[in-house]
Amino acid sequence: MKRNKTTHFMTGMLIIFFTTIFIILTGRFMYIQATGEIDGVSLKEFAEQKRTSSYTIPAERGKIFDENGMTLAYDMPIYRMYAIVRKEYSENSEDPKHVVDPEKTAKVLAPILDVDESTILKPIKSGIEKNKFQVEFGKVGNEVSQHVKEQIEKLDLPGINFEEHSKRYYPNGTFASHIIGFAREEEFEKDGQVTNEIKGIAGMEHEMDDLLEGKDGYISYQRDKYNKKLLNPNEVIKRPENGDNVYLTIDQKIQTLVEDVLTQVEEEYSPERITAIVMNPKTGEVLAMGNRPSYNPNNPADVGNWYNDAVSTPYEPGSTMKIFTWAAAIEEGVYNGEEGFASGSYQVNKKTAPINDHNNGKGWGTISYDEGFARSSNVAAAKLVWEKIGPDKFLKYLHAFDFDKKTDIDLPGEVAGKILYNWPLEKITTAFGQGSTLTPIQQMKAATAIANGGKMLQPYVIDKIVDSTSGKVLEQKEPTVVGQPISEETATEVLSLMNSVVNSEHGTGEKFKLEDYTTGGKSGTAEIPNPNGGYLKGKNNYIFSFLGMAPIDDPQLVMYVSVKQPELEPQEVGSDPVSFIYRNVMQNSLHYLNINPDKETEETEESLIKTKVPKVIDENTKDVEQKLVDSGLQVTVVGDGDKIVSANVHEGDMIIPQERVILVTNQPKMPNITNWSNRDVSQLADLLELKLETFGNGYATSQSIEKGAEISKDDYLAVELSPPGQDENSEKQKENIDTEERIE
Question: What pLDDT, on a 0 to 100 scale, did the predictor assign at position 264?
């Protein structure tokens, strides 16, 4: 009886327990069924989220152009290759959609991707063994070019697929790399998810990153377990907002000329540093700016110099500073150019070290201050500051020329020089460019006051910002006068003194003479501080420089060149590499800009005889071609159309024989571009709106679009380039180089 009572009690307790559990579970299920929620989470929304795929639609990063619309930076499509390895993905499909034969797939892909077969086969087999849906191929498959992708697609390999993304591309390589900078794809967390975006790292890409990057869109849809859209996918699309385009003041032809000449000097003299700037003194526009060492932004590895020395590296300028010392004396009314002084050595008091002229203090006897400028006399500069102007007033002129502050040029990383002006010797040595430091761009800004009637202009490299979708100009830069440190009369007199440096019998700048233009300027030989104190010694241990203008009566271009520690032969001097750069760039840039020569010349070379371009747009193809050919121009007609719709020249342009003229007809077809320069290829791609990808450097040796093929906007063109002399067409390429040197 006792056992039965216990059994009944335990049975009752179990019934109560299980009944309670049943009521709780039933109640919970009824609650879930009624509300559709668990812990405040909607089951409907949770289910939709689980079967909904959402993908970012990346915005296209804005392009960077030169002032003439030549593309300098753009997003180039590249592809991530992956393989689907799960057999179930091919169910209910007529053709297989997964990798059927791993060995064959690896054998075919390996030579195209230039890898071992195992690089392809190993991840495919590993994915199959681990029952993965798809596999990727690491670095080999992450940056597949469109050209390679198209080769693979022609093989029709089952299971091999591609996903498009973008890579920032710079069609001109090292061209203006310190100005343009570079951008690259970086991984970071956004809204709780890891994502990749192209971000500006250096130069204009970094400075204008917010404007260039745009805003991403997205697409979402409901899918099955194999990621296929449902019949009613509830698709949502938000379109991306592409980034704005940035137009620079850089002129592609002048910049290319600077790059070519800097490279020649770098190869011949192996200097520590080179810097060159070309500027329009009437506007403040920087037309070219280059440094060596440089780098290729398409592959910024082993960069020898990240700094844009033109704006980021102050140093003692040397005698180019004398331009502004003489300007201060003239403006102050204490200058008499015909007055004589004793050159050679000058000491203001016994406590101050003597100042010596650059010929070891020998001087040239008693000479005038005008001659002292032409001969670059340190003594003349010191006496002007100490005895004529006065150190305190001279400091005011240094401030008036903004030597105590940044130029605020629209480039990142600018560093201002420093005026050392505490002791009598520092005040004197500043007069001829020792002690105090300046950047090249600070000197160029001050030089605009000399070239522009006393008005000093703000230097800038961004011309305008343009909406990439509508083409509307969002911001347009205008010339800005930021000061007037001297009068127009003073500026005119300083120009005359600069003229004497190059063209008088006593001038130190004879090597800087131009054939067709009268140029003036001031050379500099700056000592380099020794980390252990004092200055470095030796023939090569200087920064050799020149600040010049032309035509000197009304300067249209101002140029600064500096070469640090070139390796000179015994018979060579520091002005040799500097003058080589200056002469080549200034002479050819002035011709290119159609500046009328101010010197009579017997030059009759074909390269300097220019032809005025007639109207070409909307004109008959054969008529235009005949006119240009008769003028001695090299003409390439693109297509078989009877009307010209675009060209790389404009009506009224002055061009020289053998310059390539590209005429695009209303029925464009791909021309043979073998032996074309990178510049000509880029111009053709811009005119035809092709997506260009180049491989190598030099001149075209192969093209992905065959000659005579019809072409459309956004077609992909891959071009292989080789330096002259490396293939059977080397002689023809050499002819083209000679032609381009004459053009530039």
Answer: 93
Q: How far apart are CA 673 and CA 63, in angstroms?
A: 25
Per-residue pLDDT tens over the stretch 402-455? 999 999 999 999 999 999 999 989 999 999 999 999 999 999 999 999 999 999
pTM: 0.76
In a domain, 604, yes or no: no
Residues 541 and 413 in one domain: yes
Catalytic residue among 177, 319, 376, 722: 319
424 shares its domain with 404: yes
Say if 163 falls within a structural domain. yes
Give, for 712, the enclosing helix (H) or strand (E): none
- Do residues 39 and 136 share a domain? no
Once rounded to an integer, what is the mean pLDDT over residues 146-150? Answer: 87
Between residues 727 and 177, the one the model is more confident about = 177
CATH number, domain of 218, equals: 3.90.1310.10
Q: What angle do CA 288, 292, 294 make, to 5 degrees?
A: 90
Peptide bond into 597 cis (omega under 30): no
Instruction: Based on the fold, state whether residues 152 and 194 are members of the same structural domain.
Output: yes
Q: Is the pLDDT of residue 345 over 70?
A: yes
Do 588 and 669 lie in a common domain?
no
Block residue for tokens 């071609």: 625
What is the CATH classification number for the domain harbouring 289?
A: 3.40.710.10
Residues in the chain, overall count: 744
Q: How far apart are the C-alpha atoms of 121 and 103, rounded to whole Å?
A: 6
Give the whole-number percent of the chain exceeding pLDDT 90: 45
189 in the same domain as 103 = yes
Looking at the domain assignment, is residue 597 inside a domain? no
Element of type H or E holding 79: strand 71-84
Q: Where are the beta strands (DSSP E) in 600-656?
A: 611-612, 634-638, 644-647, 654-655
Angle, helices 322-332/488-503, rounded to nearest 10 degrees: 140
Please report which helix (H) or strand (E) contains residue 495, including its range. helix 488-503
* Closest alpha carbon to 375 in 483, 225, 506: 506
CA 503 to the chain's CA centroid: 36
Task: State the average pLDDT over residues 301-324.
Answer: 89
Contact 226, 134 (CB under 8 A): no
How sure is the predictor about 184, in pLDDT bands with cuts at 50, 70 and 90? confident
Last residue of a domain, which of 562, 592, 622? 592
| Number of folded domains that form the chain | 4
Q: Which domain holds residue 12?
A: 2-50
Q: Rounded to an integer, what distance in angstroms lies between the CA atom of residue 612 and that of residue 633?
A: 11
Cα of 490 vs its chain's centroid, Å: 37
Both 75 and 24 in one domain: the answer is no
Is the same domain home to 105 and 76? yes
pLDDT at 165 > cutoff 90: no
Summarize the confidence of residues 35-62 as an average pLDDT: 64
What pLDDT does 513 receive?
94
For residue 730, give the amino acid letter. Answer: S
Residue 536: Cβ-neighbour burial (10 angstroms; 0-12, 13-18, 19+): middle
How far is 439 from 302, CA to CA, in rounded Å? 25
* Contact partners, residue 14, CB within 8 Å, separation at least 6: none
For residue 734, what is the domain's CATH number? 3.30.10.20
Residue 345: active-site member: no
Q: Which two tokens stand for residue 246?
A: 């940035």
Domain assignment present for 599: no
